[in-house]
Specification:
The chain has about 1150 residues and is mostly helical. The protein has 53 helices and two strands. It is elongated, with a radius of gyration of 38 Å.
Length: about 1150
Amino acid sequence: MAAVAVPQAEPAPEPGPGGSFRRYLARLGALRPQPGSERPGGAGGRRTELHLLFDQLISESCGPAAPAGPSPQDVCALLVQACQLVNFDQEHLVSKVCQLIHHLLNRFQVIVDEQNLNFLLSYSISALKQCSSWTHVEILQALAALVYNNGPKCQKYLPDLLGKAGLLLQFSDSAQPDVELRRAAVRSMANLCLSVPGQPYLDESYRSVCFQTFLSILQSSKTSDVDDITFCMLLQNALKGIQSLLNGGKMKLMQTDQLGSLLAVLKKCMFHGLPGLSIEMPPALYPAPLPQYDKRSPVKQEQSELAAFKQTGNRRKKAKGKQKKGEFGEDTKEDLADTGNESIHEIDMLKLHLGDVQNGPCSDPRTHALDVAYMPAGKDHLSSHYNSWKRISSSESEYSDAEGGIQSKMRSYQAKVRQGALACFLSAIKSIEKRVLYGYWSAFVPDAPGIGSPQSVSLMTIALKDPSPKTRACSLQVLSAILEGSKQFLSVAEDANDHKRAFTPFSVTIASSIRELHRCLLLALVAESSSQTLTQIIKCLANLVSNAPYNRLKPGLLTRVWNQIKPYICHKDVNVRVSSLTLLGAIVSIQAPLPEVQLLLQQPSSSGLNNSGTGTPHRFNSSEQWRKTLPLEGEPPDNPGNMPSEPCWLIRLCISIIVLPREDSCSDSDANFPSGSVYEPSPVRLESLQVLALLVKGYFSMAQSYLLELGEVACKCMEEMDPSIQLHGAKLLEELGTGVVQQYKPDSAIAPDQRVPVSVVVAFWTMMLNGPLPGALQNSQHATLQTSACDALSSILPEAFSSLQNDRQILCITLLLGLNHSENPLVKAAAARALGVYILFSCLRQDVMFVADTANAILNSLHDKSPNVRAKAAWSLGNLTDTLIVNMETMGQSFQEEFSDLLLLKMLRSATEASKDKDKVKSNAVRALGNLLHFLQPYHITNPRFRETIEESLQALISTVQSEATMKVRWNACYALGNVFKNPALPLGEAPWTTQAYSALSSVVKSCKNFKVRIKSAMALSIPSKRECYGPTEQFCQIWSALVVALQKSEDTEDFLEFKYSASLRTQICQALIHLLSLAKNTDLPFILETITENGDAIKSYVLQYMKSGVEENEAGMHIDLCEREKALKGAIEHLCGIEKQLEGKARIRVSVYLEDILTNHVNATELTEA
């Protein structure tokens, strides 16, 4: 075996761990045999010296941890030199040197470098092959320590370890009688499966071998000759191995058999040793087919789904809670070095958590401190403390009776198996498509038990009954992962109507499961004493609320959640408070507005808050007075009658948390938060701000009476030093502004007298602009805040903006124009979008200078390197060109003449260039092109400087209509061509591009798979107002023919979602056909008559349907009523009669007779209906 160079010991080693190691290195170097110096009996003396030296090293490695350990290089050098001194025939020394490898690598968390790893691995593998079986456990422990996080460096040893006759496969085989040996082999295999970021993972063949090995171990039953604890450790190692395979990102569980087998053993292990529960699992679980993810009709599937669903019904469990994978992720060198204080600390932690159940939430301050430490505040971040589920003592057997006795020890190991199974399930969930996972829903999520039948076991069984708080939290985390993204699956649930059928529909079964989840989670909420687990229950409830279709369920579920969560808003633990607010945020944002939530928000402020005993529910009552103590600049006069008689308690609560000093400075046991803070901890305040923003967004009618007060809250937050608080203050401001704007939209259902008065909105924005908003907009050190402030400023009500003082209007415009030149793409994009909003304000759009300044700023952004900036700028350019058209129609030529020709040409060129950009830019660029070409005057069109640009613009539009771009781009291009056709100054019907434009639209109206594109093309074809605009007879007839074909194909679609647009498409085509008939000249009639002769019946039925279809709104947003349709048809008949009279004798063509027949049929049908 090739020796590895080892550094020589220094003559005078320094004190400390490093020096101590170098002394051992020096002693080992002295024992190395020198050539020719070996004396008889010297080998025996050296062997005795090695025994003593190894014993001393092992003893030291098991003692109290030193503040600073030796360097990894020294550890590796010592181990290599020790192996070089021990031959394989010295088996006691081999055993000791392997123990030394195991202890030192674990104790000092050393990952062996590649050169030394090669030597030590070769040594270990050779020792396994040559030494007696009694040494194999120690050798395998050393091997496990060596390969930990070193899998990619072990590639050349994999055939020896995992090949067909691999050592690890032999030792881990189910026929292996020595369970300790089997466990050590499985552990080594599991460590080999650990992935290393950025390094290649195990080949598929090795992954498959390992997976099958781990799976067979989990499927095996404990035999009588194996003690419980050893069997638990074997299961733990197998679970850790499967989790590593799943986390490696390479293993996707696609085969039903493989996945079903894994889920079956995970379910079995999830309940391993759970007191009072013994379940028998089949070898595999099988999924139920799901209509939500299937192409088949849900109606046809109902019975087959129910049958499959009920097959797995007896394997259900109860569930709740939420956490993320990291909490149960791979440990940091865990199993390999758990001597000394590590194992004692783990046992103490377990005792503390078990004590929680009996002693209540306040019994032991250490318990609470641990609970808080486990969960960082705020979102679902995972603590490394959870890695301890696999952290067994170094030998995995050191556990004295003084530390709890054999029963306590066994319960601890059984709990670790359950935690390991849950952690593994969590990794499996991330490796499975949601549509596949939900086929197994009934095996893991509870359903209401049938009459007389017991409750099936589920994840909720663990959450309600497991004695270990950590295991309960694990099950809740898994349930949360299942619920996350389940909206589509749960969307079929419905129990709003009592069903009276012979079978239970799938929708009712899912609704029943949702109800049972609510019931069980609320039970767990009341019963839980561990703050950390309590946090998980509430987060799980929030996930459930975010995905359940409450609008399809009987009311009452949210009311129970709402009333039970109120006391926890004032809980002593900061993480419980944060998660409680998260849950309230989920309730006010789900399918808003829900009548049930509207009623809950109107409840008296004291309802449900006085039964906790753990908080100070009266705190927020004083929040109504908080403004009296805050001198606010420019505060508007009181608005009598603006405040409701019964305030919204949730708004009052959130305001109090955000702005009032905390009453009990010692209420939080989490030392992570600064004790000197006047206010609630930052995560609680941030969550309160988010709840306010969600409530304003979903229930603005409840919040509008607090507009000025909430504005002051936003101001106060933006004045603080914490960037997160500032940012959420700006986001709250944006939601308030948007809520007001929504009320004033033309299609708003809010009665004018119910809206926020414009005077109040003006006072609100005056307060903002006199406060911290301008400073936030200019805070270049905090680009995210600038972005949010831009978004907020763009949410101002146009009617209020026009009433602001002149200097405030100029301030807004100046800031936005300036930010449009920001170097930060997020800020620049937000500023470009805001300018696109302002350009639509009636008080600004008629100002030629403002329009010009805005146009230049937008064009600058349209050439930015950031696609997001260009997309926002294109949207704003589309709005700006809409403004040009409105000004042209309202102000006439005066505005057109004032607007710079050079700027107009620049806009045309930029929009043409942008129409070749990405689709997000292109969709608005073509909209702008259509408007600009509509805006052009005759002198522009005859101007030589414009001629080439106009031609390029038209070609860009035509090619976009024919392109394979997204449908939104194509229908915008069709709409833009329709706009072009409205400009009488363009030579429509004469120029060569006319033929290309009509040809493109005719092709699209017949064959595009998207009906909305067809509708826009038919609309564009019906816009030219004169017959000569359609060109020669041949071209006119091609358009007519295309529309007739399109009408006949108006129901042909492969996509069911398009079918809902078919009626609108037929309406638009019929309008276009009647429009063409009203313009037709005598040379067009022969072809039209020929078409009618061939397809007259079909056309007649569609036109009659169009005539009697009542009042409809077409795609242009115009109402076409019955009278107007009759008038258009009569106009076409009169026009055709006039032309036909000009034709003489037999050549006379009577298309008008055909239309008169249609009109007569329509009139008769109408009279019959009225009669």
